[in-house]
Amino acid sequence: MELEKILADIAKGRIPPCYLLFGDEEYLIRDALDKIIQLIIPASDRDLNLFVLDGDTEDTDKLCESLLTVPLLPGRKVVVVRNTRMFHSRKTLPVIIQKIREHVSANPARAAADFMLFLRMTGWTLDDLKDGGWQKISDEQWQQAVESDASQDREDWLPAMTAFCAAHRLETKPSGEDTERLEVALKNGLPEGNHLILTADAVDKRKKLFKTLSEVGKVLEFTRLKGDAKQKGLLMESARELLANKGKKMAPAAWLALGKKTGFNLRSSMAALEKLITFTGEKPTIDEGDIDAVIGKTREETVFNLTAALAEKNLPAGLTILRDLLDQGDHPLMILAMFAREIRILLQAKLLLETGTLAAYKTGMDYGRFQKALFPDIKQRLGSAAPHPYVIYQALGHAGRFPRESLIHYLDRLVDIDLALKTTSKDARLMLERFLIQVCG
């Protein structure tokens, strides 16, 4: 409703000098940005009067120069900075880490930008972390650097990002925290008709720039709704608007198929929907077959299938899925981390069974019964480190295929592969394939 009011004000000519759109709902931020730009600046003027910058390369001095320069064409001028880093601080580190987790495999280049920001804020360097240096960081040191992120899973992304950034010789950039000139420019007022729009995934509201923007402009926060029902409702509303604008409809079965592929995540679902609209062309209704043709298997499905093949000792399936992941650009260190996580869980399940404290557990028992009768006790033992109950249920079922000594040996072997990937030019694909053969063969 707040966005609707802002759009109504713009339509009436009441336009403040600046806007800040932030939050964890990326699609809603992008949608709001598009709507604001469309109302402020006509399409015919955008080639010369619309300037879009990226937060990865932002320079506050150049930004101020652009904001204080009159437009090339008479009319309004809009400067957009997407994913600005100017509002980040140690307080927003957990958000940055979550972004790294989300993109480390599917989009490592994007994750790398956040990773370099992570390094700048924690004070660590690539030299500190590479060659296994990240393993020397104790939980206490991690908590001191990142106060509100326990990051028990940091081995799943930290070594992969370190290797990626080192291989591409990335360097941390200046902090960009010197925003005083921009604050002064906004307080003194921009030239008539000039406007600034900033987007960010998270902000530290204590920063002076945030307070200045709140005073002279408009701030909109887009927070992810809690609860599956609310998320699905928001998705349906956003999807209906997009489909209506494109003259499309969606079959009920297609909705269910899309939800299975994307988990009803707003950003993923809307990105998939945009692809489906293009794919179906003049066809008025998107059906289930279109979903399978355009989206296929998600990366999450592929990853799950790989670890399942490992646990089930299904060598043909494992080799096929491994090839697919490597061919689509997944980093070998990420796949190695997935293998290590699966072997650790299997070993923990094996040890748990050997203690004899799960006398009520029977191979093949119903998941619902396991969840009610056994998981509460397991969760109490493991505390916050407990994986999802279904993960434990599956691991207990698969653990019988592996001797404890073999699982320990596989972990040692993974350490050797990790070292070889980082210090030699040995074929990563071949080493991962050999590991799969060793475990499944």
Give a description of the structure:
The chain is an alpha/beta fold and 441 residues long. It has four domains: 132 residues, P-loop containing nucleotide triphosphate hydrolases (Rossmann fold); 78 residues, no CATH class; 67 residues, Helicase, Ruva Protein, domain 3, CATH 1.10.8; 142 residues, Zinc Finger, Delta Prime, domain 3. It is built from 23 helices and seven strands. A five-stranded parallel β-sheet has the order 2-3-4-1-5, sandwiched between helices. Strands 6-7 form a two-stranded parallel ribbon. α16 crosses α18 and α18 crosses α21. The model has no long low-confidence stretch (mean pLDDT 86).
* Class of secondary structure makeup: alpha/beta
Proper CATH architecture of the largest domain: Up-down Bundle
**Which of globular, elongated, flat, extended, rod-shaped describes the shape?**
globular
Order of strands across the main sheet: 2-3-4-1-5
Mean pLDDT: 86
Estimate the helix proportion, in percent: 55-70%
Span between N and C termini?
59 Å
The biggest beta sheet reads: 5 strands, parallel
How many individual β-strands? 7
Could you list some keywords that capture this structure?
single chain; about 450 residues; alpha/beta; Rossmann fold; Helicase, Ruva Protein, domain 3; 4 domains; 5-stranded parallel sheet; two-stranded parallel ribbon; 23 helices
